[in-house]
Design goal:
This protein has 66 residues and is mainly β. The chain contains no helices and 7 strands. The radius of gyration is 12 Å and the shape is globular.
């Protein structure tokens, strides 16, 4: 079975506060996550948060066989 992991590069520094806590993201940092569709919108699921894909300037995909 293949697992697809998405990596997004943070466009500019931001602090995200959600139900599961808070997280600081720094410009240029690569964040591993998953692209999903939630209520008709495309979101980037990372660290337990639903982040707006626009917060990332570059995306790369990595497929791993598990």
């Amino acid at each position: 079975m293949k697992t697809t992991v998405y990596f997004g590069r943070v466009r500019s520094d931001f602090f995200f506060k959600g139900i599961k806590g808070a997280k600081q993201y720094v410009k240029g940092q690569w964040v591993a996550g998953d692209l999903r569709h939630v209520m008709g919108r495309r979101v980037f699921m990372a660290d337990g948060f639903f982040l707006n894909p626009q917060r990332f300037d570059k995306m790369k995909v990595s497929s791993m066989a598990s």
